[in-house]
Structures are given as structure tokens and as C-alpha cells.
Amino acid sequence: MNLDELKKEIVKDENIVFKKTKNLIDTTLSYCPGCGHGVVHRLIMEVVEEMDIQDNVIGVAPVGCAVTAYDFLDIDMQQAAHGRAPAVATGIKRTMPDKYVFTYQGDGDLAAIGTGETIHACNRGENITIIFINNGIYGMTGGQMAPTTLRGMKSSTSPRGRDISREGYPLNITNLVAQLDGTYFVTRQAVHTPALVRKAKASIRKAFEYQKLNKGTSIVEIVSNCNSGWKLSPVDSIKFLEENMLPVYQLGDIKVPNEK
Amino acid sequence: MKGNEAIAEAAIRCGVDAYFGYPITPQSEIIEYLAAENPEATTGMVVLQAESETAAINMVYGAAGCGKKAMTSSSSPGISLKQEGISYLACAELPCLIVNVVRGGPGLGTIQPSQADYFQAVKGGGHGDYHIVVLAPSSVQEQYDFVKLSYDLAFKYRIPVMMLSDGAIGQMMEKVYLSDYIPRSTEKQPWAATGKTKDRQRNYITSLYLKTEAMENKNIALQAKYKNITDQEVRFEEIQTGDADYLLVAYGISSRICMKVIELARKSGIKLGMLRPITLWPFPTNRLAELSNQVKGMLSVELSSGQMVEDVRLAANGKVPVEFYGRMGGAVYTPSEVFDYFKSVFLK
User: Fold this and answer.
1) Collapsing DSSP states into helix, strand and coil, what is residue B175?
2) Cβ atoms of residues B104 and B328 within 8 Å
3) What is this structure's pTM?
4) Is the ipTM above a cut-off of 0.85?
5) Per-window interface: A 237-256 vs B, CB < 8 A
């Protein structure tokens, strides 16, 4: 019996209780083992499948590790310049108002170079979903300090630890945009335990569903790890995340719609 | 109507889907006119004031990536901010219209007319090996007509098109013949990101090619497209070149001033003509090369320190002397000033 036949024998359709969403392309992810990006990619595509909106969704990929997201997500996408995803998404949503539009951005993209685009898209209440991956570091360029890098946290551009007196404070941009009248749903989630994955997925689904209401911007921050950039093993990076990231970036809903 | 208003009116009548802009003198009438006309209620055209020129060009990118007719407008300092986006648009091969109503620079400069953004417009401006089509209107009517022409070229070749105007043409008032309304297109571009339907592969709009070979192939394809445009789309106007002994080369407001210079010269018995490039990229190199076999000298007249003159010299290739006359920083020459300079260099 060759391998394919063996697979068929073992993996019978009637035995499958859980499988990969069809909207995720069958290829190897380019992310480091232990990274949260793959989980979040999958959650978004599961939501797209469950809502059956594959032909009605347009994603915007950022600059950063997730720049190649369109190699993995089987949907129409646009790649934006660094930090400009909310502006690109504005152009899409304004001219294609019936589509579900989301951006996928990291902390450097959304909270440093793209701060202006982020705040103003939220302030206009663009009916888009922003998925914000906060791992406190620039992953793709090799572990430099990000606006969300923690106090005292080491990076290749803060090798002695982030010094508040010189580099300022970790920027809690999600709480900041929650203050704006244009945002409708703002939440902070994580994906490093199965329970958290389920909660994160529920939040992503809500964020997509709210686009139908035309009531404003939805933001789902995912506090994630970057074991390569943090120079930790995957397991240690999760420990670091729980002990150091979560006290600063506390999980939970920050702004929820006033639903009666 | 004002030159700037003509662009705005043309956008509405040409079925443009979206305008994204940011106020800056001397072109703010474009967004003001659109805001007052409120085409969203009639044609459905989106008009949105962005938080910055950077955001505006990226909104254009998003809309253009959906296959929509999108445009933005600005003036020199704002166009500098848009260069990042223009480079991305060029690589992602997105059709759109960018209007630059040029003012004096460098820096914040002045709000008076200038042509000092020629290099930025025709030689790239942003990073990487790319070109965009550059159209130079010389009247309010052309400001109007070139909106439609821009989209025809932009969609034919999937390339951004810039209308390189100046503070004088943008602000002057002239009669304009308006065309009939063209409804906004409902046609889906096969390459556009509009939501992946079951009958096709996913579309993604990108300027990222991480592998060297892929990036080189992308560049080779872009250059082949540019060659094709250079072969097909050169546009220019000739004024009294048939018997000309000398040639002026000027575009935009300078070409209007040079019309008067030709009059002055002809009255003095000097056979002066003019070539007015309408496309600054692709540049009318071949025609200028032909004319360099006929005339005794060329004078490039520009509101700059001498930018287009470099392309005129390349075209003439040393066959005839190519001289330059210009003013900078928002100052504009009079016809007699240009004529005096012409005489001083060619009729000593």
C-alpha cells in the first residue's frame, strides 16, 4: 500500500471531526515555529468560511512578517505600504461598501509608522476590521524595538533594554483608539492557549459581523509572541508573554457595542 | 471656469469612482468643487478628504486595486509625500490619476506657478525603476480633456497617470466645452481584488517579489510595457515648425507664453517655431531628433532651473545647440524677456 492509499485508509471522511479550513492554502507557512501568526491566519479564514463570505472579503496585508499573508489566505488581497493599510482599506471599503474588508497589521506597522492612518481610519469610523498583532517587536527586520516593546525589554536597537527616559513608554494604541467615537468594537485577545484561541475567534467573528451594521471600526488586538525576535524558545516566549506582556496589555473587551 | 474646477467637473462627467485628497494651494479648488457638487448623490462618486497626502494616495491604491477609477490631486510638497504610494502603484500596475498643480519650491516654497517638478514627475520621483505617464495641459480645456485621456491610458496599460499642471493653468479662467456624462463603469477588471469568486483564482495586488528572479522578471515586464508606451503614446503639438529656423520647446503655461514669443519673432522676420510636448513621459524624442536636422538651434523654456532641457539635449544629440531660459521660485517670464534671451544666444 503506498502512502496516499494509506492516508485514505486512515483518514476516512466519516472519521474526520476537525480539519483545516478550505480558505487556507495548502502550503507551508513562512512563520517561525511557535509564532502566533499562523493561528490568527487560520482563525480569520475559519470565520470567513463559517460566514461563507469568501467571495465578499478583501484583505489588506501589511509590511512585516505577515506581508506574505496572501500566499496563505485563499482570498483577494492587497499588499499595502508600511503602515498604510487602514488608508488602503478605506479606499477599498468606500468604493466597495458591500464587501468585508480587513487589515492585518503588526505593532510597528499600526502603532509606529502607521499611527496617523490608524487613528484617522478609526476616527472616521471606517466600517473595516483591523486585526492587530502585538508582539512588542519588529519581527521581520530582525528584532528591533517597537512602539509596544516593554519597559526594559531588550531588542537589537535597545540592547540594554528599553529606557523610558530615552525611548518613551510602551504605546497602548488599542486603548487609545477605543476612546475615539468612530470605533465600535475594540478588544484585546491572545492565542497561546486553546481557550484563548476560541475566545479570539469569537471576537474576530464579531468584528466581521459588525461590518454589516455600518457603525464603525472594529479592532481585534492579539497579544502574541515572537520567540525568534525575543531570543527565547517557543515555550519560554509564551511564559514571557504571560508574565510580562499581559500585565501591560491586559486581555478582554475594551469597547463593546451598547446592544439592547 | 477655473483650471482646477475643470479637472473636478471632468472627473464627475468621466465617471470617476473616487477622489481622495488633502487641501494645498494652488489646487484646493479641486476638492472644494467636488465637495460642493456632491457627486456622491448623483453619479455615486466618492469624495473624501484624507488626513494627509500619504493617506490619500494609499486610498487611491485601495480603490484602484479594486479596479475602480480613483484619483487624487495635490501640489508640489504634497506630491513629494505621495511618492511612496506612486512607486507602489507603479509596481502593482494600478491605473489611477494623480494631478500635480505645481508650485515653486524646493521645500514649502511658494504658492506661485512653477515647472520645477519635471524631474520628479518624469524620472521616477519615488524609489525603483519605474515610469508613469505624464500629461502636460496648457489650457483649461486640456485640464478638462486630459482627465478622460488619463483614464483611457491608465486602464489600457495599467499604469498611474500624472497630470502635470502648474499654478497658472490651475488658477486661470477660460471657456471650456463640456462633454456628456459617462456613467461609472460596472465592468469588473479581471485582475482586481473584488472578492474571490468560485470561478477564478485569488487576485492579489502587490509590489512585493522577495525572490530576486521574480523581482527581476517583474522589472523586465515593466520595462517592456514602458517601451510599448514609448512607441505608441507620444503626444505633442507643433506650432509653425514647417519653415522654422529656430525652435522653442515648452509645455504648460510656458508654451502659452512662447506663442507670443513666436509672434514677436515672426514680426521681426525670424522663423521661429515651437514643439510643445503633451506627454512629458513618454517624451517626443524622435520628433525633436528629426527637427534637429532642420533648425539651427533650440531653446527650452521652463519655469525651473533647467530640467526638460536635458531631455531636449539628449534628443538633439549634439546636432544643434540647445539653450535654456527659465525663471524659478514662482517668478514668470514675459514674452519679450524670453525673446530677448533668444536673440542674445542665437542672433549675436
Assistant:
1) coil
2) yes
3) 0.96
4) yes
5) none
